[in-house]
Amino acid sequence: MTNVLIVEDEMPSARKLKSMLELVAPDLKVCEITDSVQSTIAFLSNNSVDLIFLDIHLADGNSFQLFEQLNIETPVIFTTAYDQYAIQAFNHNSIGYLLKPFGSDKLKAVLDKYRLNTQSPREQSIDYQLLGKMIAQQQVQPEYRERFLVHYRGKLKPVPINDVAYIYAENRGVFICTHEGRIYDINQTLEQLSEELNPRQFFRANRKFIVSVLAIVEAHLYSKSKLKLELKPAANTEVIVSSDKASKFKQWLAR
Predict the structure, then answer these.
(1) Do 174 and 62 belong together in one domain?
(2) The HTH LytTR-type domain covers which part of the protein (predicted)?
(3) Residue 32 contacts residue 24 (beta carbons within 8 Å)
(4) Which domain holds residue 30?
(5) Which of 112, 125, 137, 249 is the most buried (most CB within 10 A)?
């Protein structure tokens, strides 16, 4: 049995990867899921694994910080949303990677490569710190959505992204609410919008809400680990940040 560590700060993504591994590679066992640099260091300092799936952006920093503090000789498969220019760095260093979003076929292919390398290991020394610098230099700033085009009184109206207070799903529809309290129907899912919106300005609070940092008045402790948001304009339902996102939300809000 091959023991696997998943390092991913988005718990839904981690669970999805775990489920996919159970289907395509039943000989692999996910023994732990960590979501930050520090929790990963704590785990690897006392445990060994055979394979690591490693996201680049974690709750408390960049995953390349791990290689500055630990001597990691375990094979690593990066799960990344970086563009094709940064991917060249991975190819150059013969590292397995999965470009998000990925499906079972891509996962199986990278695992086949991993198994081939373990059966016929090649002598190679990977400078992960140098790799991190290469990716940082090659990374092109992503282009995020700048406006919505909505239907309003029989016409098309552009709504600048800075006018949007929050986006929510309700009754099979998705709507934007502006800072002035105007509601517009849009023909996109929250999943699609999560990829298109600037993550410094917008946060996916839960399954039904994406909120702008400019709309947050206060965040109240809702339970031991959840947060309740007070928004302006007020939402027509409670906006709760789930326990698995609360820590990341607080870091995002404090930027």
Answers:
(1) no
(2) 148-255
(3) no
(4) 2-138
(5) 249
**Count of domains forming the chain:** 2
Q: Which residue has the tokens 């998000």?
A: 100
| pLDDT per position as a tens digit, 164-173 | 999 999 998 9
Residue 69 near residue 43 (C-beta atoms within 8 A): no
β-bridge pairing 2-7 and 227-231: unpaired
Exposure string (b/e) for 122-139, b if CB count within 10 Å is 16 or more?
eeeeeebeebbebbeeee
pTM: 0.55
Most confidently modeled of 32-36, 80-84, 95-99, 143-147? 32-36
Half-sphere exposure of 250 (CA within 13 A, CB side): 13
- 166 and 177 Cβ atoms separated by less than 8 Å: yes
Interval 68-80: pLDDT, tens: 888 888 888 888 7
Helix, strand, coil in percent for the chain, rounding step 5: 35, 30, 35
Report the pLDDT value the prediction gives residue 122, as an integer from 0 to 100.
Answer: 54
Read off the DSSP letter of residue 146.
Answer: -
Instruction: Return the DSSP state at 75.
Output: -
Quote the CA–CA distance of 242 and 196 in Å, as a whole number.
22
Whether residue 113 sits in one domain with residue 170: no
